[in-house]
């Protein structure tokens, strides 16, 4: 029984992976949904929802520094010149 539990735990740990997005530098809009959620859309970027560990401010200036990036990237997106720590990314469509 212990072996089965350990094997299952190892399987779950090895299947965890980061979500990544591409073509984000072509986005034409960045919208703050709430203090921790951002929506990036337009151009070839499609629609991407991003959760942040950095508090997000409505009306702030956002800059996309990388075309492609993954969860927990801290050098892809900037708000008022300060890096945003990305917690989670979901490409919606």
The gist of it:
The chain is α+β, with helices and mostly antiparallel strands and 93 residues long. The chain has one helix spanning 2-15; strands at residues 20-21, 29-34, 37-41, 47-52, 62-64, 69-70, 77-79, 82-83, 86-91.
Description:
With 93 residues, this protein is α+β, with helices and mostly antiparallel strands. The protein has one domain. Helices cover 15% and strands 38% of the residues. The protein contains one helix and nine strands, in the order αβββββββββ. Strands 2-3-4-9 form a four-stranded antiparallel beta sheet, with no helix packed on it. Strands 5-7-8 form a three-stranded antiparallel beta sheet, with no helix packed on it. A two-stranded antiparallel sheet has the order 1-6. Strand 3 and strand 4 form a beta hairpin. It is globular and about 25 Å long. About 11% of the residues have low confidence.
Task: Give the helices and strands as they follow along the chain.
Answer: HEEEEEEEEE
Strand content: 35-45%
Which whole number gives the mean pLDDT?
81
How many domains, as an integer? 1
Which parts are unreliable, with pLDDT below 50 for 5 consecutive residues or more? 6-15
Percent helix, as a range, is: 10-25%
- Quote the distance from N terminus to C terminus: 42 Å
Give the number of helices: 1
Rg result: 16 Å
How would you sum up the major sheet?
4 strands, antiparallel
Based on Cα principal axes, name the global outline.
globular
Query: What spatial order of strands do you see in the largest sheet?
Result: 2-3-4-9
| Class computed from helices, strands and strand pairing | alpha+beta
Number of strands: 9
